[in-house]
Write a structure and sequence with these properties.
The N and C termini lie far apart (40 Å). A hairpin with a 6-residue loop joins strand 4 (32-39) and strand 5 (46-51). It contains no helices and eleven strands. By secondary structure, it is mainly β. It has strands at residues 2-7, 10-13, 18-26, 32-39, 46-51, 58-60, 68-73, 78-83, 92-100, 116-117, 121-126. The strands form two sheets. Strands 2, 4, 5, 6, 9, 10 and 11 form a seven-stranded mixed sheet that branches. The chain is globular, with a radius of gyration of 14 Å.
């Protein structure tokens, strides 16, 4: 079992930056593919970014490419999402997710591929 806890959300003005953190605990001895998703009220959940368990492959939604960066600090069992040039349309609850994987390079961006989910952290971007 893996537990995930997000943090770092908040209110920021358009053009500003935030860094989200996702701390993993429990069965973190296994290789984990991890990703960030977001969901705005009344909207479908959408993928944001993902990182392979090898830490060498990344996947980003087109809407955040060039603005968001996903990274991992393996020593801290923590994945980060650096969000720059934030836009009002980035407003959502952001969730981190993880899945055990035997593929060091695969980074699925479908929510159904992930087994563990955090509770979410809210990001609000004002115009």
């Amino acid at each position: 079992q893996v537990q995930l806890v997000e943090s770092g959300g908040g209110l920021v003005q358009a053009g500003g930056s935030l860094r989200l953190s996702c701390a993993a605990s429990g069965r973190t001895d296994s290789h984990l593919t991890e990703a960030w998703f977001r969901q705005a009220p009344g909207k479908e959940r959408e993928s944001v970014a993902g990182i392979s368990w090898s830490g060498t492959r990344f996947n980003y939604a087109d809407s955040v490419k060039g603005r968001f960066t996903i990274s991992r600090d393996s020593a801290k069992n923590t994945v980060y999402l650096q969000m720059n040039s934030l836009k009002p349309e980035d407003t959502a609850v952001y969730f981190c997710a993880a899945a055990a994987s035997r593929d060091p390079w695969n980074v699925p961006m479908e929510g159904d591929k992930y087994d563990y989910w955090g509770q979410g952290t809210e990001v609000t971007v004002s115009s």
